[in-house]
Write a structure and sequence with these properties.
This protein has 477 residues and is of the alpha+beta class. It has two domains: 325 residues, no CATH class; 51 residues. The protein has 13 helices and 19 strands. The chain has a five-stranded mixed beta sheet with strand order 2-8-7-4-3. A five-stranded mixed barrel has the order 15-16-17-19-18.
Length: 477
């Protein structure tokens, strides 16, 4: 499940920043995001970049490729897919962050305080110093890098047959964007790995549906700044290749979780099933956007029917996050926890494919490599496992608070020039001070004061849209 991104696209010639960027900076300061690294941590990062602990195994002859958004430099994953008899062999290389972080050192201490990279529309605050996350540890093209390589074999139907994890030197031969890959596949000019990514991705989507899972690839929000200084909010349509690529990461997380369950040591990402009140509320949001959801259809199957080229459907995908609540981490050592399943995936699952951006993945990689290779799990990993759920939960709350504040500021910017205008909306939930309404256009969730009934269609007037305080208020007319 991909992280939703929000980016600013400034269409004004010669613009030198604007109000939103200043507000985003204030949000980071107010919420106490750790923006600077201690000098001792930076010194360790620079030293590790010069002399990392490299693996002996060499797979630099394998033509790995990466697929990421334009301009990305923190490249966690590279892949190579080939036929394996009637099935498939996937080698999925993950950045070898453990090679660059000394357990118990200043850098290790700092990244445990951060937990994860914090993303804002205008920038990111990285988990690791950029010398590592965008340099020595990143799987950049045409450079040899240490990696943890997931070597997975699937049947012709995309069912896991076998898997192991080992450290090796790898080399990416090409950095693609999602748009480039989609164009190559659609045009019939794609290399074998990309063509097989489509095949495997589609198989895995079918397996997910059979399990009762519901994947939620989030769209990217773009904030457009027009020549007159007003803002518009657009959702970039998702591409099929983004789903296929996400399925490789999900497969890897499922495989890693099962390895740890079999070994009775590790940490899982769990989530309970969606509560009925959240499903009902989501149905009302879908109705507000004029989209039909057949009765009796599970929400996971409904999400798969959406036309992701339709901006309204993209807004629905965003609203569906309410169905993915209650996720947590379960650490265990010696016995399997009672709760093991991630309900949206409909299988045990863990985070293991983004160690440059998420702390837990570094530890899961070390655990799984030891279990698959018959080695000893290091003491520093076992000692850390019980502490990781709280670290990840706290950093997750901070990241969500930053995202929410930035989204509120963005929505205020989009609406700032429309105070006094009226909009069509549907009441989707009650709130402490009024009602939560879903506007039909633009696709904004906000609080409206006044009298209404749950699920009713209403007209609302925009009373306030303050970028500085991230406040948007409506009244029901």
């Amino acid at each position: 499940m991909a992280q939703r991104a929000t980016r600013i696209r400034d269409d004004r010639t010669g613009a030198n920043g604007h109000v939103l960027e200043r507000v985003f900076a204030e949000i980071r300061t107010r919420l106490k995001v750790r923006q600077e690294f201690p000098e001792a941590a930076l010194a360790e990062a620079r030293a590790a970049a010069e002399d990392p602990e490299l693996p002996e195994r060499d797979e630099t002859a394998v033509p790995f490729i990466t697929i990421d958004p334009p301009g990305s430099m923190d490249l966690d994953q590279a892949m190579h897919i080939e036929h394996d008899g009637e099935g498939y062999r996937i080698r999925y290389a993950i950045a070898d962050v453990p090679a660059f972080v000394e357990p118990g050192g200043a850098l290790d201490t700092e990244v445990r305080l951060r937990g994860q990279t914090v993303y804002c529309p205008d920038t990111s605050v990285p988990l690791h110093p950029r010398e590592l996350s965008e340099g020595a540890a990143s799987l950049l093209p045409d450079t040899s890098r240490p990696a943890y390589v997931w070597d997975m074999r699937l049947t012709a139907q995309g069912v896991r047959d076998s898997a192991e994890l080992y450290r090796a030197m790898v080399r990416s031969v090409r950095r693609y964007t999602y748009e480039e890959v989609q164009q190559l596949i659609d045009g019939g000019d794609a290399e074998e790995t990309l063509l097989l990514l489509k095949d495997v991705g589609e198989h895995r989507i079918r397996r997910e549906s059979e399990r009762g899972g519901a994947s939620l690839p989030m769209p990217e929000q773009e904030v457009h700044v027009d020549d007159d200084g007003t803002y518009s909010l657009q959702f970039r349509p998702l591409l099929p290749v983004e789903d296929w690529n996400a399925q490789i990461s999900l497969l890897t997380g499922i495989v890693a979780a099962q390895i740890m369950l079999d070994g009775k040591v590790g940490i899982l990402r769990t989530m309970p099933p969606a509560q009925q009140r959240d499903v009902d509320r989501f149905r009302r949001q879908v109705r507000a956007l004029g989209v039909t959801w057949p009765k009796g259809m599970a929400y996971g199957d409904f999400l798969r029917t959406l036309d992701r080229q339709d901006p309204k459907h993209l807004a629905i995908i965003h609203d569906a996050t309410a169905l993915f609540r209650g996720a947590s981490y379960e650490a265990f050592d010696g016995s399997v926890p009672e709760q093991t399943e991630q309900a949206a995936i409909a299988a045990p699952y863990t985070h293991v494919t983004a160690p440059l951006r998420r702390l837990i993945d570094r530890f899961v990689l070390v655990v799984c490599e030891a279990l698959t290779q018959g080695g000893e799990i290091p003491a520093w990993v076992r000692e850390a496992l019980p502490t990781l759920p709280e670290i990840m939960d706290e950093s997750g709350r901070l990241a969500k608070a930053v995202e929410r504040a930035c989204t509120d500021a963005t929505e205020a910017a989009v609406l700032a020039h429309r105070v006094g205008e009226q909009f069509d909306a549907v009441v989707v939930d009650d709130a402490k001070k009024g009602w939560q309404v879903q506007l039909t256009e633009p696709a904004v969730n906000a609080i409206a004061e006044g009298e209404a009934e749950l699920g009713s269609e209403v007209r609302v007037e925009l009373v306030e849209a303050d970028i500085a305080t991230q406040t948007v208020r409506f009244r029901i007319v």
